[in-house]
User: Fold these one by one.
Assistant:
Number 1:
Amino acid sequence: MKRVLLAESADVMPFALESLRVKYNQFPMFGNNRGGKVIHLIPCMTLDSAMDAAHSNIDLVLCGLHFDESRMFDLLRFMKATPALRHIPFLCIKTTEGVLAPAIYESVKIAIHASGAEGFFDLCELIKKLGSEEALKRIGLYFDELLSPSNRLG
């Protein structure tokens, strides 16, 4: 079972969980649901709780853009500055409605990548553009890639 830390603000967490189809703190692996694999989700709503949870043998961090009053970059810096954690893939997500101006969106993507994160996606826009099933399928394939043993460096 893979362990995924979901760092998101309290007011957004219910939407993020619903969007990711989470029930009872676990959800089937996206994509083709290979053999019923399950991801154990560890929701964290504050920077301190996420930093603590990061040390609990996690395999991936999903961090919301507005996590804990916009402290996504603080968590990203912590993860990449901590030798025991820097190998853990870090994926930034925007889970709230509202469109970022193209220049701001590109600036955020550049800063995220420069800080060592594996990627950034806008969940709401992906769902609007592709539909829920296809968006979640594509995200799931990316999760599969990030969670594969060949991706783990640590």
Number 2:
Amino acid sequence: MRIAEEGLLQEGRWPEGLTVLAAAAGVLVQVQFTLPVDEAAIRLNLADPLVAIASPVLLLILGLRHRRELLQLAGTPLILAVLAATAALTVSLLTGRAAIHEWQAWALIKYAGWFVLLGYALFGAMLSAAGGLLSQQAVTGGVIGLQLLLFPVFCISMGLWLLWPVQYGFRLQGLADNPNAMALLCLAGFSLAIGFHDQMVNRIGGFGAAAVTGALAAMVLLTRSIAGALALILLVFAVLLFRLLPLKPIVMAFVACMLLWFAPQRLQDDVANNVVVKTYMIVSESKHERAQGFLTGSRVGRLESYRLAFDQWLANPVFGAGLGAHMAAQPKSMSPDVMPVQVHNTPLWLAAEAGLFGLLSFTALFGVIAWRLGRTFLLQPPQFEGRAIVIAASLTLLSAVVAAMFHEMLYQRILWFMLGLALPYTLPAAWVGQSARKSAVSGSK
């Protein structure tokens, strides 16, 4: 497979256009918001129009010019795993419709959202195949650049938007509209900084690269997401275990992280207590009672949600209760003062609504992806052109797996976009093509 540094589209102005497209995608994929629809909500992303337009265009162009290489990108195991996951969600959708006797908004949103996620994976794969390393570096610049630009906001803001975080216990509400999704975005930025560390050193020096990496780690902590902090600790352990970076930049990044986290988190508390709370108390009751009441209801809601999901899985072990069944059943099974919530555990949610069929299908899908990423990392030398994005995607996947134990993380666009960027480099056909090119270059010398 001829995926060089410039990608499959190397002639004319294609490289320049793809670089701009990749940088824009890296910025826009981080900006999303929620639109209420009936009793449900649709999460929209500023990159959605870009993905909807660019994915089929790139697919058509690459299909016409490089049909054989394009057919090699996915691989049979991955295609079968995607089809199995799609079949599981389809069965779950129909099961829920048969059980509830009406189409639930949550079910339709979840089902349609699955194809949105596949679109982001396809977009990442097409972008990486077409633009190669240049596109990956542009995405990295877009993701990290926006996060660094927002760092001052992270330092002082507890989410002054709508003052809602005061009720939520003083936790950051950012572009992702919830702290856990924001933490995953920051973890993706941190993963890209690890993967593309050498390129950052060449551009901004060792101290600059360490400062950027430390700032991105500090941003994960500033979201105050417990799942994000646990995932960050595991990523640091993976960096040390697999020696992804030398010890010196790791130590420098840790020092930078502590320096950039300690003072801002104290400032966050001061802003929350002295600005947001005082403003909020003008139009509401005691902030202590309101905040504590919301947090208590949230915790109780999660526990009751877990219990309900487990009961639904036991009652429907093979195909689950159906998409949307969990949210539909909560008002009937929970206390009236408890807010209905999604299952804050992705495997449990899949088991409850899609049964063992869905749980095993998605486990197989991520197993195939993890196997391809791990195989590429272990078998290819450090000079391998796709090593940086493979490392970044692997760390992002690891972050999502950890966070998925505490929250619903399957439907995060940044995860699928990152996996798509790495997929073109995880097949032996790509390795052989690059080895052949390097041998030819060596022979010409």
Number 3:
Amino acid sequence: MRDLIRWNFHASVWLSILGAIRVIQDANLVLSDTEDLSDPLKNNLLFIAAYLGLSQLVLWFLRYSRDGFFEALLMGGQFLLLAGGLQIYAWVNDLPLQNPPLIAIFYVGISHCLYPLARSRGKAGKRVK
């Protein structure tokens, strides 16, 4: 089970990196009708996608490859907040929101939050390698 959680986490990290690249290329993936979207709103979306993608890439090489469980939990919280924040943002600004990217963001957040469960524990609660 722990290996499945680890594999799922690694897949979700790369999904978030590739998803960020794709959103930067085409903002219509998240917001369906961006013709009415003003430049500041579009720039906010692109900035958030770039920030999350870049932070995932940096964390992949610096922390996740060395079992950075705490960082994964923090990033999971950020992705879950983003999923909820996007819904509120779209509702307040009366913007049409695509469901597949929202589901993907929620999946990435849950995968990151479950990753610390992959840590092996011994009888006394100490970490076993």
Number 4:
Amino acid sequence: MAILSICCKQKETIKNSSIQTIVDVKRDTFRLLKKEHFDIREWDTLSIESVKFNNKKLFFSIEDLKLRQIDSIRYDFWACGSPFEWMDEEKTNDSISDIFIKGTRYSTNGDKVLLVSSMIKNNQLRLINDTINEFSTIDDFERIFPLSYNKLVEAKQLNPENYLEYDYMEIPFFEEQPADHWIFYFNKKGIIVRFELYWWLC
């Protein structure tokens, strides 16, 4: 009986040990999968609020624009709405006009102003930890936005006909809505020449 009792206890110990091992393996696997899930990012992002153009915000009051020398004004029709519907809940005017100042395009609803596009020459974009200017290259962007650079490489391989004149890199404002994004254009020497902000409104 003593021998039988010892054998039963040994079997029970082995069984419990095996169960604990399985539990530990499952727990470690879950932790690994959880870590991989949260570590994987599909997009680089660059919010409008985090960027300054020549040390000024990209979204500001019309009063600030009145102090600048305006080259021309064009009234435009936005068939599917405008970014102001998302960025400014207290908009006071539905009419959108484009204002051009030294190669930079601004859109305004009569109350707020949003920088929409610009040549980069003689200008700069100040990010949180970097600055983009007319000397910035696509290699700089690869360092700052590696995921977006990889998507550019893949896109050029799939559709080279879309990159005959410029290389262009798209960087979403937010990862949840990648259809709304920056577009940075580079010449064939790999130097940035201009940028624009794009919204998928329709």
